[in-house]
Structure prediction request, 239 residues.
Amino acid sequence: MARGSGSEGKSLNELILALGLITLTFDDGRSGVMYVYPVLQEAQIPANLAINPTNMWDPGDMYLSVVQVQALQGLGWHVVSHGMTHANLASLSPDSLRWELRESQRVLDSLGMPTRTFITPYTYCNELILAEALQVYENIRCGVQAKWSVDTLQRFAHGRLVGIDVSAYHDETLDRTYSFGTEAGRGRLRQVLKKAMSQGKFVDLFLHDVTPADTAAFREFVGMLQEFKANIVTYQELE
Prediction:
């Protein structure tokens, strides 16, 4: 469970109430992960990969291949479902929605990557998506922190969850409030995490692609996370 916390024997809910928990997720399974995973390995901080199997089968230069995902899994990373095709689930028929949810889980399971966690593409969610997803998964992340305050984050790591987008977007029109790529973003994130942990909340920090130019900033980000290392888990530890 939460490494270094000395809390063996406590239930998951007791741990969250006592400590608060943090998980780190790379959405979309993009190949930029390979630039920074050694930084996480050095810090002994595992992460999650939110994978679309269709991209993993035909990765090109943009996405991680099956072999790369399996290699990270072997290092203690956890694979979670992000749908089969990264479709906007809100635009699908009920049958297509169910296929995205169930087929992605089936494929990941067949590859030795079983999961009970689903990350909605584009963070889009409605009551139908949530209801259908909860028929298959235990944990559903379907929102971003920009739309909710820390005070409304879940205490328990099951059901509907929201995340904090910490991506180092280079496009200034995108939300960089908590960007790992800037000192100001990392500072704001640290304050949010301190408050969330003091309230015993669960937080998913997620990001998208990472470039070689982001490596130094990512190292600073991981250095900041060391303050919360006892709180950091993967979704596998919550399933």
Remarks:
- The mean pLDDT is 88.
- The two ends are 11 Å apart (CA to CA).
